[in-house]
Amino acid sequence: MPIRKERVEFFPRLPMMSHDADYNLMKRIEALQRHQKWIATGTTLSALLALVVSLILPKIYRATTYILVSESKIEANSQYSMWQYSLIRTYVPFVDSDALIARAIRDLHLDQPPYNLTVDRFRRDRYLDVDIPKGTRLLEIDVEFPASRLAADLANYLAQNAAYFNTEVTMKETQTTQVFLKQHMDEASRHLAEIEKERLKIRKDASIEDKDKEASILLEEKARISSQLEQFRMTIAQSDAEVKTLAEQLTKAPHIISLKKSVDSDNYIRHTTERLRGDTEGLTVSEETLSNVHEKLQQRYADALSLAKSSEAGLLAAKSDLASINSKITQLLETNAVKRSEIERIDREYVLAKENVEAATRSYQNASIAVTAQSQDLKQLAPAQPPERPVRPNIILNIVLATLLSSVLLSIAALIWEGIRSMRRMRSDSIEQAEELLASHR
Description:
Layout lengths: L1 H9 L2 H22 L1 H21 L4 E10 L7 H9 L5 H4 L2 H10 L11 H6 L3 E4 L6 E8 L2 H59 L1 H45 L3 E7 L4 H11 L6 E7 L1 H74 L1 H8 L2 E4 L14 H47 L1
Antiparallel strand pairs: 1-3, 1-6, 2-3, 4-5
């Protein structure tokens, strides 16, 4: 029940609120109708004023030209193209620079009457606008100027000189790169000459061929002495064995041999002995002589012993010579190893220095290509033509805007004036009612 009561009390208020709004709207419309003559008059005057001002204002002409930022024709790939595309905005200062504007003002005589332009005035009046159309490789140059021919000349001057400046920058960068690479090439050549001089000196001082020959001679001598050592060892072994054998044979062989010889075999001697002695017993003769076998064994023993002693002396001398040769060979090999290491080191440095010179020479020869690969060309697509119609002032637009703006402002002023009048009327009515109440109380 209470809810229904609230709903019954709420809904009847809506028509009253709508009625109040319609009443206020009607009052505003009536107020505007009462002042429509003044609003129309003011709007007409504003339109006429806009027309007069538009006719008095100087005409501004717009000339437009485009500069193409071309891709590099060297090393053109998608990643490189994206990198170049991201750098297109860096070419805006080539056109929109104070130095180029100052040169344009001077060369086109805009610093003289009637314009008397300076770079500051040129900037403040916003004669130049440089933009990059989205999704393109173009620089759009818009020049707005009071003179049609000068607007086109300014646009063309800025575009052509921006392209020329870019070419000049590329050439200077190429020259700078070439000078730098020439210095690097000369330094690499000097370093190569120093390395080559040091290399020749090291090779000359090393005398590796002579050292190798000397080492070969020493190795041959070592082989010969080693062969002699083996022969001496074999000779000593054989001599020792022979000396031992001969010593045993000498101890067994008799030094003196006793011989008994019968003389009866000779008839003459036998008859003579019989006459002298008167008997017939056999007659013998005893004879002692040195043993030839013993003498030969003694000689062989002495020879074998002498050979063994001489072989031992030769063995000792050969060992000493072999030790000396081994020492010389070791020292020579160590020296050769050090020299070879120095030669290998200087050869590596020589190869690296030679490769560095070749690389520097190639870089110097390809300097212009390298700079071109990292730069982009600017080219004016089409010269700007003198515009036939001005872009400002737009008389029709100015009249329409003045009419709309003045009608709105005058309507607001009329409503404010009516509001003030109604407030005054309400105030006077309340004062009269107050006076009537006072009078009735009295």
